[in-house]
Amino acid sequence: MAALLLELPPPPFLNCNHHQFLSSSKTSLRLHNFPSKTPPPPPPPTFTPTTTSCFLSTVTSSSISKEEKEKEPHSTAVASTNAPDEGSQQDRRKVVQIAWEKLVRWSRSWRSKNNKTDLLERTNKVVVLGGGSFGTAMAAHVAYRKSSLEVQMLLRDPLLCQSINENHCNCKYFPEHKLPDNVIATTDAKAALLDADFCLHAVPVQFSSSFLEGIAEYVDPGLPFISLSKGLELNTLRMMSQIIPQALGNPYQPFVLLSGPSFALELMNKLPTAMVVASKDKKLAHATQQLLASSHLRISTSRDVTGVEIAGALKNVLAIAAGIVEGMNLGNNSMAALVAQGCSEIRWLATKVFHLFCDI
């Protein structure tokens, strides 16, 4: 060790006088600009993400501390002393991010709850096209949702209109079920569609095109159409998502598809039912969900309109086959095999034929 010290060159202050050493030392100190005392890091903020005021105070304190650190001079010594602060700063950012996500989730849930009530309050009139079993069941279901809601059924049979308006029952399909008082039947398309907020299309698929062409002049271009019809048009194989815009002459007509395993009689009896609404417009799908969902009707949403249409049409073939299996008393094993194979074939056919539109 002593030999190494002897080989080292002499320090610079030994080769200069006292004044030169002081001036050089002051210059070096001025160049490095060491702070007299490193300020302690600010304490981590305490945040309770249940209130907005706490979140704002946390964001303000973190932003102020960040601005103060940006104003401090950066050097090697300061960077080395502030190295532990980077971890605490990341922790604070993580706390703020988690709190912000909780606040956003809370605001969305609160907004969705308010939107459900606001939608029913804003909806004043719903028109139902067709007076079949399922159209009548959906008209009664919507009418029960709000007593002051005007529900008009557009029919072609004047006797059926008279039965609904005078006796409050559909004498053809549900003679023993009483309809709500706010369900009104009419044969006047112009009066039925005037100022309507939603339109439930319950006309069979094979007659939908001609029916819609006859009332196209009274349909508002922004009126949302909720299709209750299932199936494909003969010869053309068109779906309802294609029939309705083409028949009305408006390719941008708002369209929603309602489908799912449901019987009109069970819906009239308010038995538990689950269905799905599909639309390319996410907001319109959620609006339809809020309009139709109730304590006994569960509504899910989807953006795969074509997939829901194809599955809803082809499942009728599977239902007929299931009825044959049950009628022949082939047992539950045969029924389970039929349903599994049928669902597989529906998926295969939908992806092969409608692969450009379908996502099932």
From TrEMBL:
The keyword Secreted does not apply. One of its GO terms (cellular component) is cytosol. Residues 65-74 have a biased composition (Basic and acidic residues). Residues 304-353 form the Glycerol-3-phosphate dehydrogenase NAD-dependent C-terminal domain. Its EC number is 1.1.1.8. Keywords: NAD, Oxidoreductase. Belongs to the NAD-dependent glycerol-3-phosphate dehydrogenase family. This is Glycerol-3-phosphate dehydrogenase [NAD(+)].
